[in-house]
Amino acid sequence: MAQRDFVMISFHIVVAVDARNGIGKEGKLPWHLPADLKHFKEITCATASMVKKNAVIMGRKTWESLPEKFRPLPNRLNIVLSRNSDLRLPEGVEKADSLKTVAEILNRNPFKDNIEIAFIIGGGEIFKTALRNCLVQKIYLTRILQDFHCDTFFPAFDDFRMAACSSHYTENAVTYCFAEYVTSSRFTSGPSVTP
Ligand SMILES: NC(=O)c1ccc[n+]([C@@H]2O[C@H](COP(=O)([O-])OP(=O)(O)OC[C@H]3O[C@@H](n4cnc5c(N)ncnc54)[C@H](OP(=O)(O)O)[C@@H]3O)[C@@H](O)[C@H]2O)c1
């Protein structure tokens, strides 16, 4: 597919990290922060266009970590990354065997002109691949101030700068804030992705 055939869609990350950039433990989120889940829903569902939706892109392990009753995430195109050709997903959920395939899915009908932002929502492997491929324009990062002794981590993102930060909130004895990081230093959208 030629580059001119691609719609230039924006890729953003949404993530919650602990004090050591931990994001998960034993396949799950090690904290329960309802206000952060609400924040996640608001960010990933919001569109400027009345007729477009957003996409949420996640690794197979993150997909499986979602309670069955909450998946697929409603009102968003769900794309699950897996190299397993036998993986079965519910109708309407797209499977991709690489980030290049994700770009191809987003650039074909009916999604081509109907998806506004592609949100990469985890987990660790997918965040790492997306950042390594310079694919991400913006990171919505919930920074949790305590250490949850995680086994999965968010990679370094030194070439992003903080563009916004909220005040601190405390919920279930956990203190956190909402930050936004942006990059403008390099090519961050389109098909230049490797598996
Ligand atoms: N704090 C947060 O914001 C947040 C967000 C999301 C997830 N999490 C946590 O993160 C943990 C899961 O992260 P994880 O790193 O273990 O797993 P993951 O990134 O969710 O999924 C990994 C799987 O994705 C597939 N995959 C990875 N790279 C791929 C590529 N380039 N092309 C195609 N498929 C690819 C593979 O699936 P196959 O094995 O099927 O091939 C791989 O096993 C959980 O603890 C979860 O709760 C935290």
Note down, in words, how this protein is organized.
The chain is of the alpha/beta class and 195 residues long. The protein has one domain: 3-Layer(aba) Sandwich (Dihydrofolate Reductase, subunit A), CATH 3.40.430. It contains four helices and eleven strands; from the N terminus they run ββαβαββαβαβββββ. The protein has helices at residues 34-45, 60-65, 99-106, 124-132, and strands at residues 10-17, 22-24, 53-59, 76-81, 94-96, 115-120, 138-144, 152-153, 161-165, 169-171, 174-182. The strands form two sheets. Strands 1, 3, 4, 5, 6, 7, 9, 10 and 11 form a nine-stranded mixed β-sheet that branches. Strands 2-8 form a two-stranded antiparallel ribbon. A hairpin with a 2-residue loop joins β10 and β11. The longest helix is centred in the N-terminal third of the chain and has 12 residues, at 34-45. It binds NADP nicotinamide-adenine-dinucleotide phosphate. NADP nicotinamide-adenine-dinucleotide phosphate binds next to β1, β2, α2 and α4.
